[in-house]
Amino acid sequence: PTPAREPFVGRQAELAWLQERFAAAAAGAGSVVFVTGERGVGKSTLVGEFLRRVRAGASPVTVVAGRCSEAPGPDEAFRPFLDALGRLLTSHARDYASGLLRTYAPTICVQMPAGLVPDPDGSLHRQAAGATKDRLIREAGDFMKASGRAFPIVFYLEDLQWADAASVDLLHHLGCRVARQRTLIVGTFRQADVDAANPPLKRCMLDLLARGAARELALGALSEDDVGAYLE
Predict the structure, then answer these.
(1) Please, are residues 87 and 66 in contact by the beta-carbon 8 Å criterion?
(2) Which pTM value belongs to this model?
(3) How far apart are CA 81 and CA 48, in angstroms?
(4) Based on C-alpha coordinates, what's the Rg of the chain?
């Protein structure tokens, strides 16, 4: 069932721009989009409406979403990515995604909650034995590239201002590879929080922007007419 949605008003230019980025990604010119703005400005609402329209399109598409934790624990490395893949492995695409993970990313398989990627003979754990963070990042890039061959992918990462350092490294790796893939990575964050407390993410964003691999969509306040439409 489709849950009741918050009324959506305004942001038509921003929606059209996001849809242009998705169309380019679907044609093989992927990119990273950073949707930035302060708390409550409507970042999640905008991306949510964009994803709803993407899902409602005529062509098949894979949409996955993960969220960063405000207070990550000691074992929270790669949390938004593992969160997104965990959701994918409980969807109708479970068998297909599981097969790709086994082939391209055994190190990620053993990071998933028990039962999502079965390992009855222990082969995945043997392949992943002694794996480093760099190996997991490389395998994640291989998995994303292989996944996009079947359907375009929209990978949504929410609240990146809380991203752990390992997740930032993985985001940078994917961003550097995405230009020739059918993948659109959309991340939201509060710029002020990143400037104050997450220098690695700031460096990642600036580098991807400089490479031409990423673009920023900075949201301001709604217009007076849009606020009136929302109240109506």
Answers:
(1) yes
(2) 0.89
(3) 18
(4) 18
Q: pLDDT tens track of the chain, all 232 residues?
A: 345 567 788 899 999 999 999 999 999 999 999 999 999 888 999 999 999 999 988 788 889 999 988 876 656 788 899 888 888 888 888 888 888 888 898 888 888 877 787 777 788 788 878 778 899 899 899 988 888 888 899 999 999 999 999 999 999 999 999 999 999 999 999 999 999 999 999 999 999 999 999 999 999 888 899 999 888 8
Q: Which residues pair with 41 in a beta bridge?
A: none
Helices (H), the chain: 12-26, 43-55, 79-88, 94-104, 106-109, 123-128, 133-147, 165-177, 191-197, 199-211, 224-231
**What is the spatial distance between Cα 36 and Cα 33, in angstroms, rounded to a whole number?**
9
Q: Which two tokens stand for residue 146?
A: 């292989």
Q: What CA dihedral angle connects 82, 85, 90 and 96, to 10 degrees?
A: -140
Measured CA angle at 157 (ends 154, 159), to 5 deg: 155
Tokens encoding 12: 């038509």
Sign of the alpha-carbon dihedral angle for 98, 103, 104, 109: positive
The distance from CA 137 to its chain's CA centroid, rounded to whole angstroms, is 15
